[in-house]
Every structure is written in C-alpha cells, then in structure tokens.
Amino acid sequence: MLSKAEEVVLLAIWRLERDAYGVSIRRQVKKDSGKDYTYGTLYGLLRQLASKALIEKRVGSPTPEKGGRRKTYFDLTRKGVGALKEAIAEHRRVWKDLGEWSFDKT
Amino acid sequence: MMGNMGMRDRPPRFAECLMRRLVWAADRESLLDDLAEEYSERAAERGAKRAGWWYRFQAAKSVLPLMGFEACWRTIMLRSYLKTAFRHHRKQLNYFLINLTGLAIGMAACLLIMLWAQDEIGYDAWHERVNDTYFVVHYRPDVPDSAGSSVPAPLIPQLKGTYPEIEHAARYLDAGRRLFSVGDRTIYEAEGGFADPELFDIFSFPSLANDPKAALKDLNTIVLTQSLARRYFGAADPVGKTVKLENQYVFTVGAVLKDIPGNSTVRFDFLLPFENFGRFEGVDLNDWGRYEGYTGFVILNAQTPPGSFSDKIRDELQRHPDAVSRPTYLRLHPLKNVRLRGFNHDGTMASVLMFSVIAVLVLLIACVNFVNLTTAQAAKRAAEIGLRKVVGASRTAIRRQVYTELAVVVTSGFLAAIGLAAAFLPKMNALSGKTIALSLAGKGGLIAVILGIAIFTAAVSGLYPAFYLSALSPARAMRPSASAGSTRSPFRKTLVAAQFAISIILVTSTFVIGRQMRYIKTKELGFDKDHLMYVELLGDLRTRLDVVKHELLGHPEIRGVTTATSLPSSASNNAGGLDWEGRPADIKGSLNFVSVDRDYFRTVGVEFVAGGTFRTTPSNQRLDEFIVNEKAVEAMKVGDPLGKSFKMWDRPPGRVIGVVKNVHNAPLYENIRPVFYVQFPAFYNYLILNVKGERLQQTVAFIRDVHQRINPEYPFEIHFLDEAIDRYYQAETQRGSLIAAFTGLALFISCLGLFGLSLFLAEQRTKEIGIRKTLGATVSSIVGLMLKDFLWLVALANLVAWPAAFYVMNAWLRKFAYRIDLGISLFLISGLTVMAVALTTVCFHAFRSASSDPVRALRQE
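Predict the joint structure of the above. Result:
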C-alpha cells in the first residue's frame, strides 16, 4: 500500500522517465499536485520508496555544471510500475461511480 | 547582478551545514547538489539574497521531516540488526553462552556487592534528622585516635540545661543481656537499651502502638519491638501487659515499635527508661567520674553551626573536677558518617572501598572476556563484514550492528544476573551477617546503581569490538588467509594477562587471609582454651559459691573450677590509682586487673615463672596478695617484683607473691596486656570450669543439675571459651569468606574467557594441527604447542600480580599484632594454583584437537 505522498512522488518519477532527480522531481510534484515539498521530505519519501524496492538509484554521467560530479537519478523498478498500476486500480475501485457531483446536496 | 556571480554559487553556510548534518549518508551528496542547483537557478533569476532566504527556509522546514524519517528508519534498521544479532548468536552458541555466563556472574557479583555497600553507606540514613544528629564524644588532645563515645551520665542533662542551642538531647546505654520473665517463661534477651525519652525526638523509630516517648517518661514502663512483643504475648495486644526483669523489677509494656532495621547504629529489642540503669546496678547516675558506656546524642537548633558549638563545649568536663584526672575534651561527632568513618577513622569505609574495587574488577574480567572473544572472531567475520561494506554499509551501520549484538548479550546477561543475585542474596546475607532484601521500593540510588552496572558493562565491553570490527577493510575479507584475530594480537594478550593478574591478586589475598585466620585460631594462647567453659555468676551461684565449687569438683570429668572478673582471653578492666614499691615517678600507677581465686591459674592453665598462687582467704577489704604477669613486670620497671609491696586504691598495701607467664589476654590484633591478679570477690563475674573432652554431654547435664538445684531462679546457660574467642574474629572471618567467594567467581570467569579463547584457537588451527599430525607430530607435542602461548601469559601475569598482592596483603596484615610471614611460598602456591587452573582449561581443547583425526581436519573445506 502506498501512502498518498509516495504515490505522488512515484508518479512524478514515472512521468519524468529517465530524467528524474531531486530538483526535477520536486518541480514535477509541484506541477502535478500543487504540493511544495521540502527537500527533506522529498528525500525521506525517496528513501522509503527505495527501501520498498519501488525505485532504484542510477548514477548519471559527469556533467560540467556540477563540477564534474555525477548526478543521482531515480528510476522506477518493475515493482514500482506494478505499484502504480495497483494504485490506479484501487482508486477506480474505491471511487467507482462517484464524482464531485456526488457530494453536492440536491 | 552579474557582479554577484562569485557569491551566487555559495549557499548560506549555516543552513548547508545543518542539512549536511541531518541527512543520512547515502543521500547526502545528491540532496546537497539538488539544493545547490535550485539555489543557483533562483539566484540567477531573483537575486542571491532571495535565493539565500529560500535555501534557509528549505533547510529549516526540512529539519523535522529529516529527523522523523531518520528515527523511523532506525527502528526499521534495529529490527534488522536484532534479527542478524540473534542469527549470529545462534550460529555461535558456544561463544554466546560463554559470554552470557561470564557477564551474568560478573554482574550478579557486582550487584550483590553494591547491595552490601549500599547498606553500609545508607547506615542510619533512614533517620529523618540524621544530618542534624551528633554524638557527644570525648577525646584526649595528647593521644591520637583517642575519641570515644562514652561520657559521664550527668553530662548530657547538664549540657541541655546550660546551652539553649541544643534542641534535643538524650542518653543511651546498651543494656546488655537481661533476664526476662513473662508468665512461666524465663529467657535472656541480649539486645536492649536504657534511654531518655527524647531519644524519640532524635531517631525516627516508627511506633506501632502508643507514643514511645510518653511511655519512657514513666519509670516502670518498657518499650518493646514488634518481634519481641510477639515472642512473649503472641497475637494478643501487648500494651498494658507486664514483664519481670532480673527476677525482681516489674515493667508495664507502654508502647510497641516496629523492628529496628539492621542498618541503625542504635539498635535494640527493648528499651527501658534511663534511670533504671542506676536502679538495676546500684550506680549513682550523678557520678561524674563513671564511664559506663553512656552515649549522648544531641540535635542542635537550625541557627547553630555545629563546628563552633563543638568548640564551645570542649572544656565542659574540665569544669567538673571529679570527671577526669587528665585533660579530656569534648566535641560533637556527626552520626551520619559514624558507620563509615568511626570516631577515629576506624569505620567500615575501608571494607566498602575494598569490596567495591573487587566488584569492579570482577565485572571488568567479565567484560574482557567479551572483548577478547568478539575481536578474536573478527577473522571469521571479516568476510561477512567485508561484504556488508561492499554493498554499502557504513562504519556506523556496522558499529550499530555490533552494538546490537552486544546489547542482546548484555541484556540477557543482566536479566540472568538479577535472577542470580536474588537467588544468592540469602547466602550473601548469611556470609555478611546482614538482612538485605531485594526490593526496589524507595531505593532510587539502587536503581541508578543497577542501571549504571549495565551501562558500564555495555560501554566497556562494546566500544572496542565495535571500533575494531567496523574498521576491518573489505579488501581483507577477500584474503581469508590474513591472520586477523589470532593470538598474535598484543592487545588481546595484554587483556588476558591483566585478567589473570587480577585473579592471582585475589587468589593470593584469599590464601593470605585464610592462612592468617587459621594461624590466629590455632595459635597457642598460653592457656587451656579447648577445655574451658564458663557460666555467668548470678543469683545464688554467687552467694553459695563454696557449695557450687564443691559439688562440681565431685564430678570426675571436671578438672577444676574457678571464679574470675573476666575470661582469660580478655583482660580489659583497667585499674588506676595503683602504687608499688620502687615505682619510678614517670610511670603511671595503672595496669589491667583481673580478680580471681587461688584455683584460677591451675584451672585455666597459666604457668608460674616465680612464686605461687594466693594463700589467704579472699576478702573485699584486705588485698594482701598480688600476682603479676611478665608484661606487668616490664611495665612496673622494678626489676624483680617478687616480695615488693603493692597497693591498690585505699586498701592497705599487700605484696607481690608470684609472677605468671604471659598469655594472650587480648585479641591477637593487640599485644599482650600487662595484668595483675588479685583476690577481690566483689568483682567475680564468671565461673570457669576445666572439663575433660570425653562424655561432654553427660558432664554438661551434671553441671545443669547442680545449677538448677542451687540457682533455680536463672536459666542455665553454659558457653565454650573458644567460641567466645572466635567472636573476636567474626567480622574478619566474614569478610574473608566474602573475599574468597568473589575470588572464586573472578577465577571462574577468567577461565571461562580462556576456555572460549582456546576453543576459538583450536578451531582456527584445526588444519595446521592436521598437517602437523600427518607429518608425524605426537599428541603431546601438539598440546605443548598450544599450551605454550597461554603458559607464558599466566607467568607474566604472576610477575605483575605478586608485588601488588604483597603490597595489599602487607597492609592488611599490619592490623594484627601477631601475624604470619609473607613468604615467597604463599605467592608461588597461588600463582601455581591459578596456572594449573588455566592450563586445565586450555588443555581441554588442546587435547581434543590434538587427538582428533587429521583426515577429518584436512577435509574441512
């Protein structure tokens, strides 16, 4: 079971394909959900996801703007993709026939 | 803005540092890189200042989540550490059990000693006003360590009347043995006291029935403790019941107290109003010249500093001319440290320190086992740890892993230790003569001590292994041939040697103490101590002495009967105001005296050097004949005293008619005292009998019959003299057996460690031994090879231990005036004992691996 926050981060990594690293993930999350996570929270979530083996680290090639240091990227594992599928299926199940209108008083 | 290019790349230092600190190692660089990247973008767009603030906000808001995640992570890791630790211990069950046993015994020993020490330190502390309570003690300015608590009886009321600074004052006197009669039961009660009512303002003895202070104001009232009351009155309410003392004084029970705990300086089972002492003994309680052992306690009011008040009363005794003949001053002495420091630095502090040191040593030995066994196995674990490091474990992670393994051992050891301590507490109480209970109620200090022991153990035994193991390099793991963890580690060798050095010191001490105590108990004292028995001279026994002696001597087993002031083993009554012919002016007329009858020397077995025993009839008025011992001859400084005139007090002078050999008339801590003997019937206290050893029971039955017939008022009690002498050394004997017990434990734990270490080495050298055997080595040569290493370690330990043991034991022996020589043989014996025990331990594995089948050893991989 993914928490809501994990779900959002996982989804952002998927959307970014092979360009997911700290800055871009944070930006993507803000774009998708409007939430402005601090780096502390973000890295905590990334660590949790990694410990559940839903994502894995990949060390990129050295870039000149980082002074020759390598960037650390995050990729979805197969299990991570599975978790996203499971999440969306669960959403569908839970919300089934409901929409915003369902909560309006008639 | 372009001018700020240099600044732009440098985020705020403090915030960056904070983040670096907080984040875990694996993500540290990428997080900081990300932050720096976004920072420089923001700096480029909106200026360095705003970017700097953004960075600071990011850092501040990240603090909580980072810490939260870390904590959460740690518990996850802890589960993993625990699981690994349990697996590890299960795989290495031998070593786990060795460590566990060692630590459990070590901590249990430590715990027991701490309980004992706490009882000593907490002596009297339960009295509410312990910090304000003072003894009034006397001391002689010209004699060091001369302070004593005995003061004249009128002094305390006098002080209370004179000085308003004294809030409460009370006298207390040990009542000694008193005869109790309730109904038809007549028994001696040994523990009681005479006291002023204000004693209850000073000490907090909780009452169960009635106000004891009010009760003591009535001269015919007695206060009992619960257990004494129950002994006589059972479940019935004792208040108002009567008790007859000494067959003549009737007291009404006025109040009942809870039993006085073992750690109180003032202890009693019954308490009588102070004035009764005068009535019982015919003593004038207003006599300033008498010191019967009256003790005075005072509490000062809050405004009075005890130091200055102490000076103020210094000369109080001088104001009463008949109080003392020589300068004697008074001072206050605090109750709170009297148990530990005594009046003259002669309290139990030394024992408390000594046992605390032993406790820490025993615990250290157990810790050393852990350190040695853990680091010795490093080679085995090198592969595991190397692999962990390769897949990314940090040193910290490995350190935590080792700590968890340790925590599992220490925790289980600790629980076992509490169980062991509880099981052995009764034994320990019996050995030390205490009544300590293992309850934690109201013992905050004890809980702290227990936790302290656990933490100390964990810290001492964990730090080094954790560092050692986490520092192993992964490269080493890939070269299993590396010699990590052999005996060749000098550190480990030092530890083993230190362990054995401690054991040897303890074993030597035990031997020395044992031998000295045996020496003391078997030493010829100069009189026939094995055949002497005594009965207290009470009631009609005293008035019909001739009949008693005549009847007793009629029995063939009774070789002699005599009467005396004190037992031959203790001549402690000092008589001043003596004079003798030719006494030099600078020699004080003061010697110890014993009043005896003419049969004393023959009955007790004291030989004459010159002259002979008394010839005249005993009389309290005429003291015509004196006999002195050789020491007294020296002290009198008159050459040959035989025939010289000798005068005691106001009696007409008599003559010295005999000189007897010195006998040990004092405990062997002290030299033989100079004594003179005189026939002074008023001072006879004991009937002493010399009885043949055979058919003892019948003889005692015969003596009982005579006693019952002549003196039916008093219960018959007969004692052996050697038991009375043993009581001198009871405390020392108790301490000796405690030390012996803990020495045994220390040695056992050391051997346990050695056992583990040799098991490990044998395992490690399986292949080597296999090869040696195929090449033709004999079992004995291989055993020799394996013993060699340990042998010289223990030999080295001896060299370190002997001087230390000599120093400690020499200091201990100095308190005896008569002592054994500390010969080299004692040290050799203890050194060889420890070595033999160590070798036996190592031999077990050495033999097993030396005699194992080499084929199997070589097929191992």
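Residues 1-8, 482-487 of chain B have pLDDT under 50 and may be disordered.
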